[in-house]
Amino acid sequence: MIIFKVENLVKYFGGLAAVNNVSFEVQKGEIFGLIGPNGSGKTTIFNLISSYFPVTSGRIYFKDQDITAFKTHKICKAGIGRTFQVVKPLGRLSVLDNVIAAAFARVQTKHEARDLALETLEFCGLAHRKEILAKSLPIGERKRLEITRAMATKPELLLLDETAAGLNPSELDTAIDLILKIQDRGVTIIIVEHIMKVIMTISDRIHAINFGQTIAHGSPEEVANDPAVIEAYLGEEYAHR
Ligand SMILES: Nc1ncnc2c1ncn2[C@@H]1O[C@H](COP(=O)(O)OP(=O)(O)OP(=O)(O)O)[C@@H](O)[C@H]1O
Ligand SMILES: [Mg+2]
Description:
This protein is an alpha/beta fold. It is 36% helix and 26% strand. The protein is built from 9 helices and 10 strands. The strands form 2 sheets. Strands 6-7-8-3-9-10 form a 6-stranded mixed sheet, sandwiched between helices. The chain has a 4-stranded antiparallel sheet with strand order 2-1-4-5, with helices on one face. Magnesium ion is lined by residues 42-43, 85.
C-alpha cells in the first residue's frame, strides 16, 4: 500500500532548480533511502514535504490526501515527523523538556506530554539522560535526541536527514538498531544519509538524485550498481559487490 508520494516536484531558488521534476512513491512500513551528492536537493525535498518552503510546482500526497498546501504544523499533526540535518535542540532545556516540547504537537495537556516524552525517551534509549541539558550531550546523543523529538510527535512517516553523520562505528550500530526498531513499530521512514553502510543495509528501496533530478531507483543492490549513480556519487568502490 502506498502511504506517501510526490509527483513532479519542482523547487526553484531564484534561477536554480534545486529540485527538478522528482516523483516517487513510498510503501507503508518501508525504509526508503534518498541519496545523492552534496547539494543535489535531498534536504530541499524534506523542506518541501514538511512545508518549510512552498513548492514551485508538483504535488505531495500522504495517505491519499493532497498535503501540498498544508502548513508545517498541520503536516506534523497529519503524521509526518522529521529531523534536521543541523541539529537544533533547545540547548538550555533539559533533554526531557526538549522532548516534552515536541510532544505538545500531538497532545494537549502537560501531563500527557510528559508521559509521551518519557515513553519516547525510553523507546529511543535516552531515558538515562533525561535530566541533562541538551547542549551538553555529545553529538551521538544529540542526534538521538533529534530522533526522539520527532518520534514524540507520533509520526506515521518519519523523515531522517543525516542522523548518522558524525557518529563513531559503535554509535552507528546503535543508530541502525534504533531506526529498525522504529520501522518495527510500523512507522514508514524516508532516510537521507551519506554513510553507505547505513543506507545500503537498512533501505528497502533507494531513490538517487543528482542536480535535483532522479538518476536511478530500485533495490539497494540495483542502485549501487547503476552506472549513473556510480558516476555521479559512489565511485567504483561500492559497485559489483
Ligand atoms: N534556502 C535556500 N536558498 C537558496 N538556495 C538553497 C536554499 N536551500 C538550498 N539551496 C540550494 O539548493 C541546492 C540543494 O540543496 P540541498 O540542501 O537540498 O542539498 P542536499 O542534497 O541536502 O545536500 P547535502 O548532502 O550537502 O546536505 C543547493 O544548490 C543549495 O545551495
Ligand atoms: Mg542536506
